[in-house]
Amino acid sequence: MGYTYPDIAFAISAVETGYWWTQPPGFNLFGMKKNPRGFYASLSKDGYCRYTSESASLADYGAYERQVIAKYNLVSRAAYLGHIHRRFCPTASYRVKLALAFQTLATIRSLT
């Protein structure tokens, strides 16, 4: 998908889907809510995007990442991750879950 920070995309998707054990409702791999980007087909009752495919969800996240980086002039991985911590899901437990997902990705990479 050409993400600027694919490891962050991996971590968010891992956390949001429970490491892909089951298909998330509406193919929503990133926990995206209603937005103006136009990739979703419908919304759940609580405002979460429902996509027609995983590809649409992946494309929406990529558009989100590009939009946020440009809008806030985020010039580093740390700045983007800081944005995720502040705006995407600001709870301390989410930060811990993301850190665990980063460790999991490092382990996977070490096996290849």
List the topology elements.
Blueprint: H1 6-17, E1 42-43, E2 49-50, H2 54-72, H3 77-88, H4 92-111
Antiparallel strand pairs: 1-2
Q: How would you describe this structure to a colleague?
A:
- With 112 residues, the chain is mainly alpha-helical.
- The chain has a single domain (6-111), classed as Orthogonal Bundle (Lysozyme), CATH 1.10.530.
- 56% of the residues lie in helices and 4% in strands.
- It has helices at residues 6-17, 54-72, 77-88, 92-111, and strands at 42-43, 49-50.
- It has a two-stranded antiparallel ribbon with strand order 1-2.
- A hairpin with a 5-residue loop joins strand 1 (42-43) and strand 2 (49-50).
- Helix 1 (6-17) crosses helix 4.
- The two termini are 21 Å apart.
- The mean pLDDT is 94.
Strand order within the widest sheet?
1-2
Q: How far apart are the first and last residues' alpha carbons, in Å?
A: 21 Å
- Unreliable sequence segments: none
Structural class: mainly alpha
How many separate domains?
Answer: 1
Q: Largest beta sheet, briefly? A: 2 strands, antiparallel
Helicity range: 55-70%
Order of helices and strands: HEEHHH
Beta-strand fraction estimate:
under 5%
Could you tell me the mean pLDDT?
94
Rg on CA atoms, Å: 14 Å
